[in-house]
Amino acid sequence: MKKEPGQMAARSPNATRPLLQLTYVSRASGSLRPDDLSAIHLASERHNGRLGLTGLLLHRGDRFFAALEGPDRVLLRRMEVIIVDPRHHQLRILRERRVETRRFENWSFAALPDAGAGSGSGRAEDALITMLAGRLPDGLSDS
């Protein structure tokens, strides 16, 4: 299709444009079972994929760490839903920044499963969550 003078070219939905990226931590409101976490993962993957959002979710004990990225308005509307979700509380946004490219381009929402108590395979994840928990406001960290 030939572009007429003065007509703007159609923009590809995957075209590079500034995106908003948010990282946050929160606390689970109660004890979450593996089925609860699976439901969160599946719903997030479905909704975020449809909305053009990408990111990841880490969960360990009663802590969540998440990163989400996407178009400003879409991401902020999604955060409004996340903030009032009763499954967690004490949400704190750690970082808000503009990015040119997606860090989690191939993940509509990747979730790192809880390794379970006493599992040696979760040491790196435990260390990461512990480090991130240190960024929680006073009174929210276990230490």
How does this model look, in words?
By secondary structure, the protein is an alpha+beta fold. It has three helices and five strands, in the order βαββαββα. Strands 4-1-3-2-5 form a five-stranded mixed beta sheet, sandwiched between helices. The longest helix has 18 residues, at 34-51. The chain is globular, with a radius of gyration of 18 Å. The relative contact order is 0.23. Mean pLDDT is 74; it is low at 1-15 and 136-143.
Number of strands: 5
Radius of gyration: 18 Å
Low-confidence stretches: 1-15, 136-143
Helix count, DSSP H or I runs of 4 or more residues: 3
Structural class category: alpha+beta
Q: Mean pLDDT, as a whole number?
A: 74
Main β-sheet description: 5 strands, mixed
Strand fraction equals 25-35%
